[in-house]
Write a structure and sequence with these properties.
The chain is α+β, with helices and mostly antiparallel strands and 146 residues long. It has two domains: 75 residues, RimP-like superfamily, N-terminal (GMP Synthetase, Chain A, domain 3, 2-Layer Sandwich); 55 residues, SH3 type barrels (Roll), CATH 2.30.30.100. 23% of the residues lie in helices and 41% in strands. It is built from three helices and eight strands; from the N terminus they run αββαβαβββββ. The strands form two sheets. The chain has a five-stranded antiparallel sheet with strand order 7-6-5-4-8. Strand 2, helix 2 and strand 3 form a beta-alpha-beta unit. Helix 1 runs antiparallel to helix 2. The longest helix has 17 residues. The mean pLDDT is 93.
């Protein structure tokens, strides 16, 4: 099994869902970031206790199978209200939320995700339904209007 698959099993064991894993560099420090979400809105969501429990479960796995060479820090948490969208599943879970997308042709879309149908994503951009293929999106994230 892959490291991500093993991490996914641990995340599911505490009643959460794996959103993403990534390696980032911040302030000359390498961070292996595990982002998790609630399976649904009724199960209490992601809280500090669950993140601590998950950190204690994942840490021994990473001792055996490190995600990167050299020193790194494990960080477990929620992807937040403004988060990157890198899979169709991310878009599906973001239906009804505001998104900002950059397409391969450099066009930018800013609006609300209406639906996902196959590989097609439908976004309400200023009252107009815009359809784009997931493969045309180079970068996407949710955003929150204050």
């Amino acid at each position: 099994m892959s490291l991500e698959s093993d991490i996914n099993s641990l995340v599911e064991s505490v009643g959460l869902e794996l959103y993403d894993t990534c390696v980032v560099s911040e302030n000359d420090e390498t961070i292996f970031r595990v982002s998790v979400t609630a399976k649904d809105a009724t199960d209490g969501g992601v809280n500090m206790d669950k993140c601590v429990e998950l950190t204690h479960l994942i840490s021994p796995l990473l001792d055996v199978t490190p995600p990167v060479s050299g020193n790194y820090r494990l960080e477990v948490g929620s992807p937040g209200i403004e988060r990157k969208l890198s899979t169709l599943k991310h878009f599906t879970k973001s239906i009804g939320e505001n998104v900002f997308c950059t397409l391969k042709n450099k066009e930018k879309l800013k609006g609300k995700v209406l639906k996902v149908n196959g590989n097609k994503i439908f976004i309400d951009v200023e009252g107009e339904e815009v359809e784009t293929d997931f493969s045309e999106i180079t970068k996407a994230k949710t955003y929150f209007e204050w």
